[in-house]
Amino acid sequence: MMYSIEQRDDQLLGTTAAITYELSFDRAPQHLVKVVMRIEGVTSPEVVVVMPSWSPGSYKIRDYAGWQGNVRAYKGSGASRVATTSQWRDKAALVVSSEGASTIEVEYVIYAHERTVRTSHVNRFHAFLMLTSICMYVEGRTQEIHHVLLKHDRSLWPSVSTALSPVQSGGATGVLLGALNYDILADSPIEIGDHAVTTFTEAGAQHEVAIATNYNVDTDWLTKQVQQIVKVETTMFGGAPYDRYVFIIQAYPGAGGGLEHARSSVNAVDPSALTDKTKAVGLLSLLCHEYFHLWNVKRIRPKELGPFDYTKENYTSMLWLAEGLTSYYDDLLTYRCGFTTTKEYLEALSKDHVGRLFMVPGREAMSTRDSSFLAWLKLYMQSPDGNNRFPSYYLKGGVIFLLLDAYIIDHSDGKYSMDDAMREMWKRYLSDPSRGMSEEECYAIVEQATSVQIRERLISWLDGTTELPYDEILAGVGLKLEYADKPSEPVTFGDKRPFASVPQAPYVGWQVADVSGKLMIKGVDDGSPAAEAGFGIDDEIVAVDDRRVASLAQLDHYLAARRQQGARVTAHCDGRIFTTTVRPILRTIPKLVEIENPSARQQQMRDRWLRRNL
Ligand SMILES: [Zn+2]
Known about the structure:
By secondary structure, this protein is an alpha+beta fold. Helix content is 26%, strand content 25%. It is built from 14 helices and 31 strands. The strands form seven sheets. It has an eight-stranded mixed sheet. The two termini are 38 Å apart.
């Protein structure tokens, strides 16, 4: 099967298409999009149209047809069309009888009211369209040019931001956009509304930054940072492999996450990321991540991820490459962009990467490769005790690439790094874009690009469930894990008077949430004091040593004082009360720190690894 996601705007200008979707928004206040799908050039007695069940990049079956309704099929088009028979073949595929007509139309509405980066969201003020959830495809005709006609009120919604290419300028009926094939259409979300759009040119390509939010944003500042990201990443890969790229940034309360596309990305953040300095760095790291994906996963990709089967799970064991590597690079690139200092970058690696992995008991239960393969049921449908069952391939995959990068730099005497491996994978993509990469091919490319043998080590890390060899590998770049907290300075108050001794909050191994005043256990770590004491998810903590607890602070306070002897905890489960003894411990999460008094070589390799100007 042919597969290509490459498109330039000039390829669509003035084209015609036999498959067109007219999208209208008269019922946007009810979160409805009306779709008229016109299929011309029909030569067979039956045409099968299918609604995708998932969106590439988000590995979960979402059954978008569940949000579809009022489906009607017609032969002919426009005013002269008449109803024709149709029948569902399965939950998402409709078989339409053409009855000899060369044009058929399928009309339906989509309820679009789920606000994430991978679902559509429409209301009276804007429309965010994920076309996998809006546009059915025609079986056997996905390689044709597809057009989308947006029929919205352009005085209310003047801005349209999408990687779909304009087909004609200033159309009277609406905004006509196009894709060279269905895969590109499915990969091109559209933001329509009154949002702000800024533009810049970098690496010889056009860039648009679409900022959809009700909040006040310093758009100039944000655009400058985005341009810096483009500059740093295109420099790493030797140019921009597109003519135009669209950054869609959505800021609304509680938002989070991103989704990558070939010529665009969707980045959702809480509005605090626009005003709080630390959170803003998180947004820039997300932008680095999703933008990096235009190379790694949209183009350099596991062989299972393109061409896609939109009807069911597309399994791959290689999300450690797609997401692990991208997670390693997002904070590294944030640092290279100058958004964080060396110290801040090392702290982020320690806290958000290595340290976080130490808090996941599931790293001992499942390999990273299996966690990737089962993403559809694990990461994307996490059970409440998922933290005990598997490590995220983002998290552990990222840490594995930190180790791999350090190993390559050390074992090539600083001559090569993961950057060289990435550039080699990029060359491999350019030599045959239609075909993805196998794991074997990936190992071979890394070894060829860096002259360092990594195959067996990398496989053992990806397949293993034992602790990674942090100190052995990281010593090469002058880093190590520190397991014990340094004794802290005595706390003083006033005129350097010693303060009272305050017990340190201990580790119990439960995650407790205050749910309307009830202290509910929402997670229990395998092997933890809480598990050994016999607590489970959804137990409600009532009292500690016969003292009623009503807040999380109170619970921590009571337990801290009872670390040595244990505390009697009274709890509620399924209508009954029980009491058991829990023995909290002091647990130290290892910190990633720089080796004191590094050798000249360690210092040199560390500087090589943290080089900003490539
Ligand atoms: Zn990602």
